[in-house]
Design brief:
Layout (H helix, E strand, L loop, with lengths): L2 H4 L5 H40 L7 H33 L8 H45 L8 H31 L4 H10 L24 H37 L12 H37 L4 H15 L4 H19 L10 H50 L6 H7 L3
Helix pairs in contact: 2-3, 3-4, 4-5, 5-7, 7-8, 8-10, 9-11, 10-11
C-alpha cells in the first residue's frame, strides 16, 4: 500500500518514520469516519426518543463531535507533516552509495508531485467558485427573506451550482489522472529492483500501470488505433457533459418532488434512488452512439487480428478482455443497480427519512471490488504485453541491421574492373 513512498527512501530508520506517519494518518481518518457513523446512529436513536416524548442526553453527541473533529484535524496535520518530510527526502542531494535507480525514482516522484499539486489548484477552482456562489446566494436569501426557515429558490440554486462545481472538479481531475497514467513511462523494472535492494517483494499496483487503459495492444494497427482513440476521447467528453447535465436535472427533480416544495409531502427517502437512477439512465442513453462507433472500429481491428499472424499475441489479449468484460468488467454497474434496488426498498419503509442514501456504500464497495478484479486481470495480461514489446524490439533491431547492411553493400564494387580500380593506390 505504501511501497510507492517507501522505495524512494534508502535509510531503514527513515522508512520506519515515514511508515509510522502514514499509519497514524490512516488511523486518524478511521477515527473521524467512525465518529461520523456514530453521530448518524446517535441522531436516529435520539430522534426516536424525542418523538416518544423522552429527553435525549446531549453529552454523547458532544463527545462524538469532539472525536470527529480531533480525527479530522489529526489527519490533516499528519498529512502536512508527512508531505513536508517526504518532500525534503525527495529534494535533498543523493547520499553516498545510493544507486542511480533511486535518484531517478525520486526525480520522477518529485515531478509527479509538482504536476499533481498544479492540477489540484487548477481544477479545484470550479468547486471554490460554486461554494462562493452558494454562500452569496444563501446570505442574499437570508437578507431578502428573513422570515423563511427553510431553504428557498436562491439558496437551492446556489447549492446546485456548488454541487455542479464539485462534480466538475472531480471529473476534470479524473480526466487529468487518466491522461497522466496513459503518458507515464513504465518504471516497474526500476521499482522491482529498488524493492529487491530493500528486501521487500515487489507488488503490482493498478494505479502505476500505464497500460491499464491503453489501446496500443487491443488496436495494434496504427490507422485503426487512431480512429479508436479519437472515438474514445469524444466519448469521454460526451460522458462528462452528460454526467454534469444529468446531475443538475436529477438534483432539481429531487428538490421539487422529494422535499415537499411542490407536493407538500416529505419523500426525502426517495431522493437518493431518484438521483442515481436518473444519472445512470441518462448516462447509458448518451453512451449508445459513441459505443456503437467504437464497436464498429473494434470489429474492423478484430478482422485484422484474426487474419494477420503478426498480431497473434494481440488476438490473445483481445479474447482475454472480451472474457473479462462479460461479467467481471460490469462489477461497478451491478453495484450501482444493487444500490438503487436497496435504496428503493429502504425508502419504501422509511419514505420521510433520507437513510436510503446509506446504500451508496454498495457503490463504494463495488468500485473497490472492480479495481481489485481489474488489477488481477491486468496482472494476467502484462506478460503477453511484454512479449509483444520484446517482439517489436527484436523486429526493430533486425530492420535496423538490414538497413545498415544494405547501405554497406551498396559501396562494394559490382564488376571486376571497378574492383581493380578500387584497389589502386
Amino acid at each position: 500500500m505504501f511501497d510507492k513512498y517507501l522505495r524512494a527512501i534508502s535509510d531503514e530508520n527513515e522508512r520506519k518514520e515515514i511508515l509510522r506517519l502514514l499509519r497514524f494518518r490512516i488511523a486518524a481518518m478511521a477515527v473521524a469516519v467512525a465518529a461520523l457513523i456514530a453521530l448518524v446512529v446517535e441522531s436516529v436513536v435520539f430522534d426516536g426518543i424525542i418523538e416518544k416524548g423522552g429527553e435525549a442526553p446531549m453529552w454523547p453527541s458532544y463527545l462524538t463531535i469532539a472525536l470527529f473533529a480531533a480525527g479530522l484535524i489529526g489527519y490533516f496535520v499528519l498529512r502536512a507533516v508527512f508531505w513536508s518530510r517526504f518532500c525534503f527526502i525527495l529534494t535533498r542531494e543523493p547520499k553516498e552509495g545510493e544507486p542511480e535507480e533511486l535518484t531517478l525514482y525520486r526525480k520522477k516522484l518529485r515531478a509527479e508531485r509538482t504536476e499533481d499539486r498544479a492540477a489540484i489548484k487548477r481544477y479545484s477552482k470550479f468547486a471554490i467558485v460554486g461554494l462562493i456562489l452558494f454562500v452569496v446566494l444563501l446570505v442574499a436569501e437570508v437578507i431578502l427573506y428573513p422570515e423563511k426557515e427553510e431553504l428557498g429558490a436562491l439558496s437551492l440554486t446556489g447549492l446546485v451550482l456548488f454541487a455542479v462545481g464539485l462534480v466538475v472538479s472531480f471529473i476534470c481531475y479524473g480526466i487529468y489522472d487518466e491522461k497522466k497514467k496513459k503518458n507515464k513511462t513504465d518504471d516497474s523494472d526500476i521499482a522491482a529492483k529498488l524493492d529487491e535492494m530493500q528486501g521487500r517483494e515487489y507488488r503490482y499496483s493498478l494505479k502505476e500501470d500505464k497500460n491499464a487503459r491503453s489501446l496500443d495492444y487491443l488496436f495494434p494497427t496504427p490507422e485503426i488505433r487512431e480512429k479508436a482513440e479519437k472515438y474514445k476521447k469524444n466519448y469521454g467528453i460526451q460522458l462528462l457533459s452528460t454526467v454534469i447535465v444529468a446531475s443538475m436535472m436529477a438534483f432539481c427533480t429531487v428538490c421539487v418532488f422529494c422535499f415537499g416544495k411542490v407536493l407538500e409531502i416529505n419523500l426525502s427517502g426517495f431522493a437518493y434512488p431518484i438521483f442515481v437512477t436518473m444519472v445512470l439512465i441518462l448516462t447509458l442513453l448518451a453512451s449508445i452512439q459513441p459505443l456503437h462507433y467504437l464497436s464498429k472500429v473494434e470489429k474492423e481491428q478484430l478482422k485484422e487480428l484474426e487474419t494477420n499472424p503478426e498480431y497473434s499475441k494481440n488476438l490473445e489479449i483481445y479474447k482475454m478482455y472480451e472474457e473479462y468484460s462479460r461479467f467481471k468488467g460490469k462489477t461497478a454497474l451491478f453495484a450501482v443497480i444493487a444500490s438503487i434496488a436497496v435504496s428503493l426498498l429502504v425508502a419504501a419503509f422509511i419514505p420521510d427519512k433520507p437513510w436510503s442514501a446509506l446504500s451508496v456504500v454498495i457503490i463504494v464497495g463495488g468500485l473497490l471490488l472492480h479495481n481489485k478484479l481489474y488489477g488481477e486481470f491486468r496482472k494476467s495480461v502484462i506478460p503477453l504485453e511484454k512479449e509483444i514489446d520484446a517482439m517489436k524490439a527484436e523486429k526493430a533491431v533486425a530492420d535496423d541491421e538490414k538497413d545498415n547492411g544494405e547501405a554497406d553493400f551498396s559501396d562494394v564494387p559490382r564488376s571486376g574492373k571497378e574492383k581493380d580500380e578500387g584497389l589502386k593506390f
